[in-house]
Amino acid sequence: MGSCEVGRAHHIFGANRVQLRLTGRTCGATLRQMFDPEEILSAAARIEAALPGAQAKACLRAVPNDRAVFSGHLNDVPAVFRLRLPEALAREEIAELRRMQPHMDGPDQIPLILAESGPVFALSMAAGTSVIQQMESPDHRTVLVARAAQWLRRYTAPTEQTSQGQAKRFDLWLRKAAEQSRRQPHPALAALEAQVLDKMRTLAAPAVWRTAICHGDFHPGNLIYDGEVMTGIDTGGSARLPLYKDIARFAAHAARRNLMIGTSRRFGVDAATLDHFSKAFTLNDEERTVLLPFFVGFELLVRVESAKTPAWRLEIAEEMLRNYLC
């Protein structure tokens, strides 16, 4: 475990993040995540034992009994280490990276696999900073969203296909949205969400829609950009999904943080962002007017605000819901 000492772990609370500082290691996690410092130390030790030459220094994310992500070095090469449980999920994540590697090169990339052992694997460190950080500058948003749309188009293209008979699947998505919306703790938002769900039910299920193996958790925080190369990270949730689900996830995630290209909203999110993705995917009229609003509505309902959500985020959430109903 190198210079890390369990007894010297302690929490330092910041405005938006919790910093777990250890002798020789640091760990960041959202305030909503609960973790035991000793579990973090144990995960780091497991990574270093599994991969010779590994130094897991900074914990980027920790989800108990699920995953731990560290940055550090593998034989002096910058690397990201992932411990994924159970091991079968690690195998799936590695297989997906291998499947996509031949398709993602040049300006649109995914991390390279450097080493693997059981539930532990090391990936190349992406150059640049996260797109969500760069989008804090309004001047950069147009380029960043266009590049994000390009990256997703390349990722989904090899497996895209058209599926028929979507009525039952539409109903499944509606039920999931309704289940999540029932957890909304804010009465004003809950009332608006009920109306959003009603509006989603008025959208007729299309005869066909396009699906592909999508990222699964596509948002600006899972993209790294250095001005030339955009790298998509955290592809462990990849699965065959309607194309519009990833687009809606990106647009809703950005809009919730008020990361808008312009001032015009459509379906509650940034209209210009939707236009960039519509262009990249050559969406037809039905996809733009039925499927995209359906999945944006889904994203508005499944990401439930907590009782501790700050007032400014609640105001944005209400604005998004009201705009969706226009």
Describe the model.
Keywords: Kinase, Transferase. This protein folds into 2 domains: 6-125, Phosphorylase Kinase, domain 1 (2-Layer Sandwich); 130-325, Aminoglycoside 3'-phosphotransferase, Chain: A, domain 2, CATH 3.90.1200. It contains 10 helices and 17 strands. It has helices at residues 37-50, 87-100, 131-134, 141-156, 167-181, 187-202, 243-256, 271-281, 285-302, 311-325, and strands at 10-13, 17-22, 25-30, 54-63, 67-74, 77-84, 108-109, 113-117, 120-124, 129-130, 161-164, 208-214, 223-225, 230-232, 239-242, 265-266, 269-270. Helix 4 (141-156) packs parallel to helix 8 (271-281), helix 6 (187-202) packs antiparallel against helix 9 (285-302) and helix 6 (187-202) packs parallel to helix 10. The N and C termini lie far apart (57 Å). Residues 1-24 and 28-34 have low confidence and may be disordered.
User: Total domains, how many?
Assistant: 2
Considering DSSP H and I runs of 4 or more, what fraction of the residues is helical? 40-55%
Mean pLDDT across all amino acids: 89
Task: Tell me, briefly, the overall form.
Answer: globular
Structural class based on helices, strands and sheet pairing: alpha+beta
What's the multimeric state?
single chain
Instruction: Tell me the radius of gyration.
Output: 21 Å
Approximately how much beta-strand content do the residues carry?
15-25%
Please tally the β strands and state the result.
17
What is the string of SSEs from the N terminus onward?
A: EEEHEEEHEEEEHHEHHEEEEHEEHHH
The CATH topology name of the largest domain reads: Aminoglycoside 3'-phosphotransferase, Chain: A, domain 2
Q: In this structure, how is the largest beta sheet organized?
A: 8 strands, mixed
- Low-pLDDT segments, ≥5 res: 1-24, 28-34
Major β-sheet strand ordering:
1-2-3-4-5-6-9-8
Tell me the CATH architecture of the largest domain: Alpha-Beta Complex
How many individual helices? Answer: 10
Q: Can you tell me the CATH class of the largest domain? A: Alpha Beta
